[in-house]
Amino acid sequence: MITVEELTKRYGANVSVDHVSFRAQPGTVTGFLGPNGAGKSTTMRMMTGLTPPSAGHSTILGVPYAELPNPGRHVGVLLDASAQHSGRTGREILRLGATVMGLSRRRVDEMLEIVGLSGDEGNRRVGNYSLGMRQRLGIAHALLGDPQVLILDEPANGLDPAGIHWMRGLLKSFADRGGTVLLSSHLLHEIEVIADHLVVIGRGVIVADGSKAELLNAAGTLVRGLDPDALERCLNLAGYVYQLEPDGAYVVDATREQIATATARHGVVVTELRGADGSGLEDMFLQLTANDAREQVTA
Ligand SMILES: Nc1ncnc2c1ncn2[C@@H]1O[C@H](COP(=O)(O)OP(=O)(O)OP(=O)(O)O)[C@@H](O)[C@H]1O
């Protein structure tokens, strides 16, 4: 479990992170989503003791990160895959980590294999690694101490589609075994696929926090009927608020189960029934991005 309470970071007159609070639960992948410069990395750096907060605090497994004994055995952290010493080989970096954490050397070979780095690649200097290989090495380092919690900043950066697919499977199974995963991204779709819970940050402030189902359902349900008039009568009888789209579909403020029950009761034939594309979340996210000064300059 990760708990973040009112974390705040000021740099001079600028507030980069403003009273941020959220939780990441065990058995769950929590996506920390926000456009560039929103405050994701700063929040994660404060959580892992690398940046002192101006106010607020956070705990991991019930204690502040700095108070965890042998932290790598409890929390795997990947904040900047390019921050590794470029003159060392991947294997040397993992061996150092294993020594610090009191682990056997066998664990290093296991980790190289798990993250898909060959023996030959493990013996190459990190300065010659691609960004994707550095991410794999960073994930190996984070998993080395068999932690219960993972904190990963943009771990998909630089991975190819097969690498992203592999990483999703890895993180899902980590959470399925009871682990807590917090991962950040600036891409909604990337995080939507893997996260169970979403925390959205914009300009240092949390703007949404809920289960993926809740946040995506907030966009409503799209339903289309063989006989649109009959469908509309049915929605009116059920008392649901809806909006008629230009293409004849109805976006209804109700769940799929509620609409299916109502249409079945009134004998209305439905030809399409699905979540309305999560457009509420996407709109909110685009608005956050568009309001950013960077976008206005290029607009
Ligand atoms: N050391 C620092 N000194 C001054 N300002 C900083 C410092 N570190 C971060 N900031 C500012 O804090 C804000 C948040 O930055 P942060 O790196 O946390 O965003 P982010 O959400 O991780 O963005 P990205 O997706 O681009 O990595 C930015 O405006 C950034 O310029």
TrEMBL record:
SUPFAM superfamilies: P-loop containing nucleoside triphosphate hydrolases. Residues 2-228 form the ABC transporter domain. PROSITE patterns: ABC_TRANSPORTER_2. It holds the Pfam family ABC_tran. Keywords: ATP-binding, Nucleotide-binding, Transport. GO terms for molecular function: ATP binding; ATP hydrolysis activity. Belongs to the ABC transporter superfamily. This is ABC-2 type transport system ATP-binding protein.
